[in-house]
């Protein structure tokens, strides 16, 4: 006995002067279940004791009483019997039929997915029990594998009617929504109402889980699962387990319709359909001989160690036995002799069943199915040939892909390895290569923004961009060229283009304008250029407008184009205005000398009264500055005039 069993104060206690507690067998959120001996009737029973911290809670006490009353109204071999309900001091308890064995949840944990015969046997029994409840006007409200009991002697029963309510009381409060969320009907989630069809929905989810090995909806939070129940349709079980017969597929879909009106009316309607399916498939529940209620292996009673079990090798719960006397051994030997003849009949039936099962397997069951071949990377012609060899019809489909080359198969639908009927259509999805996208104007965007835009289309920049001095703001895109995946000619995309995914992009980025150095001294201009990684040399020329020693302009770049960081440019520096030679006008007449100097850009002055003399009577006798002197234009030349 475990330490927790030894420390349980109820072990060994006599409850209500009648029930001797032997051992604890289960513990839940509301109550603990013990195996006990009913001293009055000398039988083993299950004693369900409410947790002490809930004893003052009228709601939970009401549920205890409700469970007893609900089960007491039912008389069906597939419903756990409740014999008694009472109070021993502050302890509320129920006395129920004791069924040594396991729950359906235990079986699912052990096997994960059940066989078709196992599933039909369990569903037939559970539906029979619920049909009795629905006929009596009782809705279970908590149908789930934990509440389906699989006894060692082969009996299958549904229990725990602690949430049961009369059909007319169909409004569920928050506390009444305590059923496991994985089996909760949509109307309980959205409207808080339930009737017999809510039990049908839970049965459909449970049937799906037995056939597939997992629940249809998963989520990290209970509300995620509840939301899926309210908004999604339960998928076909055959999508996960292709060996499921179509009839059971349809039964799951019918019982899990989101709208209650579209489900079976109650468990009897669903049971009738299940039994039609049993006939169609030739698979029937395994029937066992049921001992009288409450009779189990106890002192001097029936020995459960020899009772026939349902579905050998599946029910793995330990068998409860006691030491037996000689009389019991004699009875056991007699039963073995009687069983020999029964085994011969069973062997004949087994062989007939195997023959029928083989016919179903290879005719309409999983044996008639073929696994879809993996044609990934094949052309459509190659895929059609491979699938045709499997008696499958390849139908081409198309999809863009960045990973699979154009013209090769990406996948099949159904996927590779899925078992399907012969002559089924299989869609072979062929790659169209990378998808194309329309890209907007990139000019003027920052490098980060441009890269972020292209990253959405899986277009990357493999190398750092080139930088040029332009009038655009520093760091903005001034040019973009995209190269298709696999190489090819660049496409300019500065002002937008259409490009394929997985292309690469080459950017030109503005370094900002070249500093304005005109009018600066050479030293100041050189310093300003060095700050932006430009170097300078100088050349000189005359300028009428710029003072000597100041920069006139930056010389044009050899070959044209924009300057780039690190290059050396030429500063044109002013030498001041140009000088011109003064012509020799001595000996010329007044007007001739005046015209020659004016045409050369010089100002002419002389004694004014000489304008009164006729030109031919005048002669320049001297000039200042003298002939040959270099002066800027506009320089004043003074003439001395005399008569001829």
Structural description of this entry:
The protein is an alpha+beta fold. It folds into seven domains: about 5-95, Phosphorylase Kinase, domain 1 (2-Layer Sandwich); about 100-280, Transferase(Phosphotransferase) domain 1 (Transferase(Phosphotransferase), domain 1); about 325-365; about 370-430, Trypsin Inhibitor V, Chain A, CATH 3.30.10.20; about 435-510, Trypsin Inhibitor V, Chain A (2-Layer Sandwich), CATH 3.30.10; about 520-575, Trypsin Inhibitor V, Chain A; about 580-644, Trypsin Inhibitor V, Chain A. Helix content is about 30%, strand content about 25%. It has 14 helices and 30 strands. Strands 1-2-3-4-6-5 form a six-stranded antiparallel sheet, with helices on one face. A four-stranded mixed sheet has the order 18-22-19-20, with no helix packed on it. Helix 4 (about 115-135) runs antiparallel to helix 6 and helix 6 runs antiparallel to helix 8. The longest helix is centred in the middle third of the chain and has 38 residues, at about 325-365. The radius of gyration is 51 Å and the shape is elongated. The N and C termini lie far apart (about 155 Å). Residues about 165-180 and about 290-335 have low confidence and may be disordered.
């Amino acid at each position: 006995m475990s330490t927790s069993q030894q420390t349980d104060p109820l072990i060994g206690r006599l409850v209500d002067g009648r029930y001797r507690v032997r051992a604890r067998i289960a513990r839940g959120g509301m109550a603990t279940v013990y195996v006990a001996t009913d001293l009055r009737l000398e039988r083993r029973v299950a004693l369900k004791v409410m947790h002490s911290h809930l004893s003052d809670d009228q709601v939970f006490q009401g549920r205890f009483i409700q469970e007893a009353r609900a089960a007491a109204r039912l008389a069906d071999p597939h419903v756990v019997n409740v014999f008694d309900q009472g109070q021993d001091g502050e302890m509320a308890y129920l006395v129920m039929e004791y069924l040594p064995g396991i729950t359906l949840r235990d079986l699912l944990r052990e096997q994960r997915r059940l066989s078709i015969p196992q599933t039909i046997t369990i569903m037939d029994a559970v539906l029979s029990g619920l049909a009795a409840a629905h006929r009596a006007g009782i809705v279970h409200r908590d149908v789930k594998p934990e509440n389906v009991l699989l006894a060692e002697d082969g009996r299958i029963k549904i229990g725990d009617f602690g949430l049961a309510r009369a059909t007319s009381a169909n409004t569920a409060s928050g506390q009444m929504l305590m059923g496991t969320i994985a089996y909760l009907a949509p109307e309980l989630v959205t409207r808080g109402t339930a009737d017999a069809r809510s039990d049908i929905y839970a049965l459909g989810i449970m049937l799906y889980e037995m056939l597939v090995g997992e629940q249809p909806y998963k989520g990290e939070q209970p509300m995620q699962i509840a939301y899926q129940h309210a908004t999604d349709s339960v998928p076909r079980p055959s999508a996960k387990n292709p060996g499921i017969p179509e009839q059971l597929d349809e039964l799951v879909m019918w019982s899990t319709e989101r709208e209650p009106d579209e489900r079976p009316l109650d468990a009897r309607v669903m049971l009738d359909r299940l039994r039609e399916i049993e006939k169609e498939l030739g698979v029937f529940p395994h029937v066992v001989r049921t001992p009288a209620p409450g009779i189990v292996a106890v002192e001097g009673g029936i020995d459960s160690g020899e009772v026939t079990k349902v579905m050998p090798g599946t029910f793995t719960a330990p068998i409860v036995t006691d030491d037996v006397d000689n009389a019991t051994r004699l009875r056991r030997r007699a039963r073995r002799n009687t069983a020999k003849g029964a085994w011969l009949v069973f062997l004949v039936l087994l062989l007939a069943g195997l023959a029928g099962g083989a016919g179903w397997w290879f005719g309409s069951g999983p044996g008639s199915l073929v696994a879809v071949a993996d044609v990934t990377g094949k052309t459509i012609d190659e895929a059609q040939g491979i699938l045709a060899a499997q008696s499958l019809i390849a139908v081409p489909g198309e999809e863009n892909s960045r990973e699979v080359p154009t013209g090769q198969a990406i996948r099949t639908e159904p996927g590779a390895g899925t078992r399907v009927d012969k002559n089924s259509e299989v869609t072979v999805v062929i790659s169209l290569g990378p998808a194309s996208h329309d890209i907007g104007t990139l000019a003027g965007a920052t490098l980060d923004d441009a890269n972020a835009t292209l990253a959405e289309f899986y277009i990357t920049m493999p190398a750092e961009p080139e930088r040029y001095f332009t009038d655009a703001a520093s760091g903005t895109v001034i040019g973009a060229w995209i190269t298709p995946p696999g190489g090819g000619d660049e496409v300019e995309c500065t002002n937008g283009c259409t490009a394929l995914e997985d292309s690469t992009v080459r950017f030109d980025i503005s370094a900002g304008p070249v500093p304005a150095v005109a009018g600066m001294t050479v030293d100041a201009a050189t310093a300003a250029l060095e700050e932006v990684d430009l170097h300078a040399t100088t050349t000189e020329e005359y300028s009428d407008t710029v003072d000597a020693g100041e920069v006139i302009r930056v010389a044009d770049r050899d070959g044209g184009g924009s300057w780039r960081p690190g290059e050396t440019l030429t500063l044109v520096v002013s030498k001041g205005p140009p000088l011109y030679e003064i012509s020799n006008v001595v000996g010329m007449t007044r007007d001739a000398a005046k015209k020659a100097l004016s045409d050369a850009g010089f100002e002419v002055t002389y004694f004014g009264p000489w304008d009164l003399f006729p030109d031919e009577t005048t002669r320049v006798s001297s000039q200042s500055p003298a002939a040959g002197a270099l002066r800027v234009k506009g320089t004043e030349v003074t003439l001395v005039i005399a008569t001829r």
